[in-house]
What does this fold into?
Amino acid sequence: MRIPKSTFIRPGRNATYGMVAIALSFFVFAYSSRFGQASILAYYALWFPLVLLDYRSVLGNYRKHLWIFAFGVFTCLSIFWSVVPSISARAGIQYMTHIVCALIAMRTLDIRTLTRGAIAGAGMVLIYSILFGYYAFDPFDGTYSFVGAFDSKNQLGFYASLGIYFAFAAVFILGERRIWMLGAGILGLLSAYCLHASASATSMLTTGLVVCLCIGLRVILFLSPRQRQRLFVAAAISGVVLAVAGVYLGAVDLVLGAFGKDSTLTGRTYLWQQGIAAAQLNPFFGVGYQAYWVQGFSEPERLWDEFYIGSRAGFHFHNTYIETTVETGLIGVFLLASILLSTIIGHLKRFLGDIRNDESYVLFGLTTLLLIRSFVEIDILNPYQVGSFLFYFAAGKLAMRTRTSPIAPLAGDDRMELAPPANWEPRISR
It folds into this structure.
């Protein structure tokens, strides 16, 4: 019996394989530290063999993706000035291969398959944490919080945030019904429980903000693209003004107080100060990718001791830009921030410019979530992390060509608009 290639690599027709691959990838990202190297090899086995089926369709033209590889290449180059070249070399190669896997997934999966796979994957991760998780004591605020099967409540909170977002996107944006609507509802309740149990203020705030943003964006779908752009600009300016006013009027302290946090963000402001001081020692190139938090070095040992990190591993400055500057300097942070901003702006333009573009709708909300979290976490900086996988998946979709077809003009609008057809799928370029 011969199985068609489309079962594995054609977007829309490979839904079963794609959902399984995404779900298992989520599980590996969450618990690779528990299951070891075998889980990482399983992750590679989900994506790299697809290249053998049809390398032109699966890999595409990487000349369009050079800007996506910029930061990954720079992490590999950091071995030439790294204080621990062996660590930077291994980590750089891992990050580059991780990017390639994300781009393979991007080429072979449509947004509906990604969303369904994310629902299944987030559900698996949260159920495993509920079954085998535990409560941990936080020495800074003197409370116990549920960390699941992770070492950090923030990681559990991140997966709960993704669960809520993809459940919301499946029903509210993609219009899933029947079994997937039921699955999204169950995942939403499960994620809400884990989010509450983790007491992760970061995840609660970012999830609420992004969901409210996506609901607000739904309103402008009733307008023409030109009217959308004008309304969005006006709303964005108003939002910035209100945010600045809120900062000066003390709204930040009120919000933090509602979640039991103080102005130091549980010691993060002190940690940021230490990171900025470390970055000033090697401002342009940094100390090398993942070459700062190394056992035996005096400064990380001091910070591990001050923050009660007995394992002396898995710690960071809780800010993507500070962490990136310490490891890869101002050049590295510029490259990474450029990819993030280009991805967000690119999907926003597609969403505002097309009559209906569900793909960019979902990915804009997702990358906005990653952007907000980037100021307090490092979700997109490391290999084998769900944040970096989704980040490069979203970035790669901008390089895909889309087909448009004319439809009838909107009521009251004498201009002819172009929009994807109802059965629209991204065209695979060769």
Remarks:
- The chain has 18 helices and four strands.
- Strands lie at 134-138, 143-148, 405-406, 418-419.
- The two ends are 28 Å apart (CA to CA).
- The first strand starts at residue 134 and ends at 138.
